[in-house]
Every structure is written in structure tokens, then in C-alpha cells.
Amino acid sequence: FETARGNAAGEENVLITVGACQALFTALLGILNPGEEIIVPTPGFGLYETIATIAGAKTVPLDVTKTGFQITEEALAEVMTEKTKAIVLNSPNNPTGVVYTPETVKTLCDLLREKSEEWGAPIYLLADEPYRELVYEDVQVPYIPKYYDDTIVCYSYSKSLSLPGERIGYIFVPPAAPMAKDVFAAICGAGRSMGYICAPSLLQKVIARCVTLRPDLESYDRNRKALYDGLTAVGYEVAKPD
User: pTM, whole model, 2 decimals?
Assistant: First the structure.
């Protein structure tokens, strides 16, 4: 299977969560120590900084406005330090709508491997993917664990099933990660410390029956085109959302 859900199926390092927000909180609190840093491509989702602050860590912005919202090796290398613990990869991205290309992902992962080896500590790639299925035309979303072992996938079914507010998702730690068991145990412990003991059983039954379904993207695409065409018609320079 090429999707996160397909790869997660049957694997034991999967924690069912109360949506993507719990997934992000427990994943970051599970791996971050005070004084460490996470890199967040900007513009980006504001919750990452909140979580890092709670963990006593620092958020380092990575400006991608001048590179078509893709991440370049030069820009990333400039903001990485020995305190870097993770980079957040939100693809498809909120708020830009951009999907990171396979070339971007490969370049990013090659640099993370190089720096992890140089500094003697793993740098995690947090794949925040609640919008994975909401893509248009022939755009393909790269499956991050295929490119990088030290990945933590955070997912929500709320978007893929067009059920915003119905909080159900998961965290997946690929077994190929060198410290997968320890990382997963730390994440589970972080969740319990925050009071997340069990995701709603009713919604767990719902996703078990709806896991193969996809939303009808026609209305989403119609709104996307209307907004994009309207903005470009009056002279705005816009990255077309994927």
C-alpha cells in the first residue's frame, strides 16, 4: 500500500488518537527535550509553536515564500543546528495548499541523514498528513517513510472522510526507525500524561467501516478554481493549490 493508512495496517507501532491535534501534541512532547529545536516551514500551522513552547523547545521558522513553497537544501541547511530535533513536513500544506514534490522530499531526507550522522543523534521528520487524500488532478503525495526511516506520521480521518470535528486519527512510527520501540513508547507515555487514554470507541468503529472511502472533491475543486482564477485575474501572483 502507498498510503499512510495502508502502511500502518498490521503494524504494531500505531496509536489511535483523538484526531491530528492529539497526534501532534503527543508526538512532539514524546521526542522533544527542553532547549531543543524544531524547524517549521512558514507560512505554517500555528499549533507547532505552541506545542514546542509547552515542551520547553524552540520553533525555528524556515521561510519558503521565495521558493514556490518548496524546501531547498540551501535554505534548510542554513537553519539547522546541533539542537535540531525534528522538522515538520505538512503535506499537502495548510495554509498554502502545496504538496512537496518527491525531489523536495528526497533532498530534505538526504540532508537529515547527513546531519544525523554528523551530529550523532537522530533528527526526526514529523509528517503531518490530515489532507493526504484532498489532492487534485494527477498530483501524488509522496509517502514519507519510503524516503526516511526516522519518520513519525500524524494523521486524521476528519478531512479524508469530510467529517471535520469528528476527532479520530493515528500516529504511526515505522518499524524501520532505529529506535522505533523507544520512540513509540515515549509518544504513548506523553499521551497518557496529557490525559489521552483512549480515542472514542464509536469513531474507531466508524473508521473501521469507512477506511476505504474518499470524499467527493468536485465541490472543493470548484471553489479552488474560482478563488485561484479570481485572484490571478486581478493581478495577484499565486501558487496554485495542489
Answer: 0.90
